[in-house]
Every structure is written in structure tokens, then in C-alpha cells.
Amino acid sequence: LARSLTITSPDQLMFEKAQGEKVTLPCTFELSEEDEGPLDIEWVLIPADNQKKEQTIIMYAVGRIYNDYYAALAGRLQFTNPDPKSGDGSLDIQNLKAADTGMYMCKVKKAPGVQSIKIQLTVLGK
């Protein structure tokens, strides 16, 4: 049976944090031998405000981390593991702000496998 890439993160996909705190959004995965393409990990923010569009906030592609897409989080986010291809694409966000509230989606792609999980983050006022 060909098994493809799987995301192994736990099912607790809602986090509540206070402003100024740090959160780690989990996105761990296992690859299978069937997956041959380059590994791609992308985090997308789906804002709570429907007027705003989805925004890629950080990605790992072709062995590099690209984290300068989204000015609102600049300097406050990073992959938890400096080498995400090890199977850990989790995301750390520091110094949380109310505006960081939203749905975060982790997409892991390695052809032919594609998996994603969604995590709701709510940042509470002090």
C-alpha cells in the first residue's frame, strides 16, 4: 500500500493566548518513499476579517526559508525547527498581537502528497 505524506500533529487545533505571549503552532509530518518531489511547507493566514485575503506568511521551499512576505508578522515568526525538512514544520510566533487572531493553515507538499491542517489562534487582550 503506497502511503503518502501524513501530518502527525495533534488534534488540538485551537489556541488561546494573551497579547505579548508566544505560541507554537504544531505542524509535524512524516514523508513516505512514494513522495519524490521537492518538499514545500507553506503557512497561510486566513484572517478573521473576511474582507482581508489569505496571506502566505512563511514558507520553506527548495531548501530555503522565506519569511518576509507579511509585514505585520515581520521579525516575530519563525519555523520552530531551523531545518523544517526534518519533519517539523511547526511555527513560532512571538509577542502576539490581537491582530494575529485568525485561522492558520500549514500546507506540506511533496509530490504526489499534499496535506494541510488548520489551527485557530485567538489572541486575547491583556
UniProtKB/TrEMBL annotation:
GO terms for cellular component: basolateral plasma membrane; bicellular tight junction; intercalated disc. Its main location: membrane. It comes from the Eukaryota. The keyword Signal applies. Keywords: Cell adhesion, Cell membrane, Disulfide bond, Glycoprotein, Immunoglobulin domain, Membrane, Receptor, Repeat, Signal, Transmembrane, Transmembrane helix. It is found in: Cell membrane. The keyword Membrane applies. InterPro entries: EJ_Adhesion_Regulator (IPR052307), Ig-like_dom (IPR007110), Ig-like_dom_sf (IPR036179), Ig-like_fold (IPR013783), Ig_sub (IPR003599), Ig_V-set (IPR013106). GO terms for biological process: homotypic cell-cell adhesion. GO terms for molecular function: cell adhesion molecule binding. Residues 10-122 form the Ig-like domain. It is a single-pass type I membrane protein. This is CXAR protein. The gene is Cxadr_0.
